[in-house]
Amino acid sequence: MPLTQRQPSPLPRPLTGEASSTQIDTTLRTSSPAYQSPSTPTTPAHSKHRTPVPYLKLLPLLVQRCAEGLTYAIVFPYINQMILDMGVEEKSVGVWSAIAESAMMGTEAISAPFYGPLADKYGRRPVLISLMSMWGVFGVAFGFCKSVWSTIILRGALGLLAGCGVISRTMVGELCDKSNRIQGFAVFSPAITVGMTLAPVLGGFLADPSGRILPTSWRLFADYPYLLPSLVTGLAAIASGVLAIILLPETLQRSKTATTLHRDSEKSSNNGLKGLLKYEPFQNVLLLYGMNNAVMFSWEAIYPLFGFTSKNLGGLGLSTQALGLVLGFSAGLSIFMTIFVFPLLHGSLSESTCLRLCLISYPAAIIFFPILWAMSYPHSGDDLPISVWIVMSIQMIIRRIGDFATTQLDTLVLDSIPGPEHLASANAITFSIAAVGRASGPFVISYFFSLSTRFASPFSPGRHLVWIIFVLICIPSLYFANRLLNESNTDNPTKVEGREEERYELISHNHHEQQVRGSSSIEVQGEDAVRYRVV
Fold this sequence. Notes:
A three-stranded antiparallel β-sheet has the order 1-3-2. Strand 2 (522-524) and strand 3 (530-534) form a beta hairpin. It has 535 residues and is an all-alpha fold. It is 70% helix and 2% strand. The chain contains 21 helices and three strands.
């Protein structure tokens, strides 16, 4: 029977007290059809029984996510040396390396929204496996680059395969249900950090291997000194594709009705993708998400550039191998702190205080850059005093506290969407906005670092202009966070009711054609609050 909306269709009024809870529980137990979200039909949110996480099915998605982090970050230890070897003068290396790094994120921002409809039409699994295969090919091809423009083009080509991240995240949501989705994403989300942890160590160790870890007679690796790390990233992507063929099921069938309605809703100017973008809570989180990614990935770009650049130009002058170890240690510290420190910090502070503390940690850590340079300036090469390494470690810890904001924002994104049927659209939009931040932030900060190297005296204020700019880049995140948190604390009932009405319209549009059996009314209060009657 068709599930239709009562007329008139006001939102159900909030229920309070023990009687309200009893009414909800009784209604859910006595109703013949239980309300279920289209993507998670198996377990009610309030159930005490948790569905086991399908770790084996998730394995290809975890490997893909790890390969994504590996591909993005493996170039950090050697990209500056690679650009320098192509004939670019040292003062301009920062600009060209930033363009090469940002090209990947720029094309990701453009291409990400197109993969949702493509996966809806042809299926998640075939599209994802095809993208994984192409990812492997382009990843290996990057190692054969001999010019600056070829590196930019191939990094941009890798960004065009952004559907891997969009589809894999959507499939995790579809393979899990409400009872175990948090656990599923708790495993999936850090996988990219694992890849970014291994990447700098592998990149620094495997770059230019001829005569060091491989015989000089292996001319292929002598002629293409950065091919070996590219082979590792390409093979990792191909391995994830093979695992997907063997272990990963198609998840589109489970939500066939929902995706059909999703495509219909996107045609409406008031619902679907456009409606989601007009939904105010999602707008606020989206802006903060983009700005935070700009700051976080500015760190990923500036840190290796600062470490690589010679001391006379404002850097530390570290070797590729030493820089790889430093970056690997920093990423490993990130995993350790996310697992052991963040739960303690988050549990002892309020949500708003914790988020503000994380965002303030970024500008606090930036102050250490000129201090590190001044302490290392009298020393040459990798032979730095222990005091420099101690200060560097303190800076890493403070910076990694800032990275906790990403974990909080991932949760806020899920909480800000009006219903689970908007998961795929929300993933695509946030992926694009994050990619814009990842592309613009590193480019801007690397450009100003290159500009600061053009001042004659290493002790001139202009030489440290980049750190002032970096602090300024952090300010919008703090502004948007304060606005978001203040609005959530001061919302009046009229504003909340307006948002709930907006949320109701988005949900009901996507559910009004759902087929159900039975003849009793269903009333649900909670995340997907909406009132229906069966006719």
